[in-house]
Amino acid sequence: MRRARAIEGQRGFQFAQVAREVARDLQIAWNRQRTAADITGAARVAVSANEDATMGVERESQVGARTTVEVLDAQNDLLSARIVLERSIRAEYVARATSLAIIGELQDVLVRTQRVTSPD
Asked: What was the pLDDT predicted at 57?
């Protein structure tokens, strides 16, 4: 009888430990998602600003006020900003998928997505 109580107590402790770990993992995933969303917003602003700057440099180049190297630098800055944006979007998706996996909803989302995208 004591052994059964001890085993029951141990299982309760293990369950509580797993629940704490899941809560911690979910909090980490949520924080990563929020951070990625903030970075995505900032990256969108950066891309827009770099598009305007690149357009301005290209126009100035057409009238001889800028060199080809300056145009290429502006285009490189724009490309770098777009890369940051795409990476932050990816990080946001990964964090969402991690959150869904932790709470056990990822499989349901994938099944619904597959139904929508599969040809019939």
From this structure: 98
Q: Are 54 and 74 in contact (CB under 8 A)?
A: yes
The SS3 assignment for 62 reads helix
For the stretch 31-62, what's the b/e string if a residue is b when 16 or more beta carbons lie within 10 angstroms of its beta carbon?
A: ebbeebbebbeebeebbeebeeebeebeeebe
Q: Which amino acid is at 37?
A: A
CA pseudo-torsion sign 57, 59, 65, 67: positive
Element (H, E) at 43: helix 2-62
**Pairwise CA distance, residues 54 & 44, whole Å:** 15
- Distance CA(46)–CA(63), nearest Å, equals 26
3-class state of residue 119 by DSSP: coil
Residue 12's pLDDT is what? 76
33-55 pLDDT tens trace: 999 999 999 999 999 999 999 99
Residues in the chain: 120
* Rounded mean pLDDT, 12-28: 82
